[in-house]
Amino acid sequence: MSKTGMIHEDGLPGHESRLEPKPEWEPRYPGSGRLAGKVAIVTGADSGIGRAVAALYAREGADVAILYLCEHDDAEKTVEIVRGEGRRAIRIAGDLGDKGFCERAVAQVEEEFGRIDIVVNNAGEQHPDQDITDITEEQLRRTFQTNIFSMFFLTQAARPHLRRGAAIVNCTSVTMYQGSSELLDYSSTKGAITAFTRSLSENLVGEGIRVNAVAPGPIWTPLNPSGGASPEKLEHFGESTPMGRPGQPNEVAPSFLFLACDDASYMSGQVLHPNGGTIING
Fold first, then answer.
1. Which of 18, 150, 166, 189 is the most exposed place for a label (fewest CB within 10 A)?
2. Residue in 89, 69, 70, 93 with CA at minimum distance from that of residue 80
3. Which family does it belong to (predicted)?
């Protein structure tokens, strides 16, 4: 199991500061106060989709706790982005696959901000393998630990602090619906995340807590060139979508905003699909 400060296999999670071209995280429109007074925990918020979500939440009035593994420079940049929107931000580094870390992180957020209104389970990892026999036991356990166990651990820690009106938004993937020949373990965790979302919604809806998910298609983030896609796949990344290109993080973040705010007050157990036009069932 990886510990704080260690890098995963393939150099994950990867530095956004070193990525060219840079992913687009900037919100595309002025805020309208849809998250005014709220406090959000966003995992994997040092870069990629998580950074774009943190930036958009801040623009809409939320204070943000940035949870991440070890990319401290990227996380500090996200802190600056949130504070640049006039909101408070803290960054907490550690392994979300460690139940103890999740408990300590939630306690720190509660102590710093006094409340938790939104939990965004976005952190994840993926590793390409051509054959199922290439997936090591260590990689299989690690991928499940990071991608789905972390969601259980963080939600368990946050649950006592979530009041009626709170929202949980999980990040699943188009690979859950389409499958992925090179990402057998990753796509399997995304199937588990979708089932977790639907089941947790049933569990919490009576308490006034909504649980939904977002299933992005191919999005340009450090996850892909840092190990999430083979060189051949990376060369044509996103070209197979109907739009013929990969998406940008700021094209996904509005789905996370919608599901977190009162605009989605009659939605729970649902999945949104910012995926470049790919038609899926479910």
1. 18
2. 89
3. Belongs to the short-chain dehydrogenases/reductases (SDR) family.
Sign of torsion, CA 250 97 222 78? positive
Could you tell me how far CA 107 lies from the centroid of its own chain?
A: 20
Q: Measure Cα distances from 269 to 77, 149, 152, 185 in Å.
A: 33, 19, 16, 23
DSSP β-bridge partners for residue 67: 43, 92
186 is catalytic: yes
Q: pTM to 2 decimals? A: 0.91
Marked catalytic residue, from 29, 177, 186, 266: 186
C-beta atoms surrounding 114 within 10 Å: 10
Encode burial over 121-141: b for 16+ CB neighbours within 10 A, e otherwise: bbbbbbbbbeeeeeeeeebbe
Task: Give 236's pLDDT tier (boundaries 50, 70, 90).
Answer: confident
State how far the Cα of 212 lies from the Cα of 171, in Å rounded to an integer: 9
Longest Cα–Cα distance of the chain, Å, equals 51
Tens digits of per-residue pLDDT, 68-112? 999 999 999 999 999 999 999 999 999 999 999 999 999 999 999
Each residue's pLDDT tens digit, 217-231: 999 887 665 555 556
Residue in the structure block whose two tokens are 């696959």 = 97
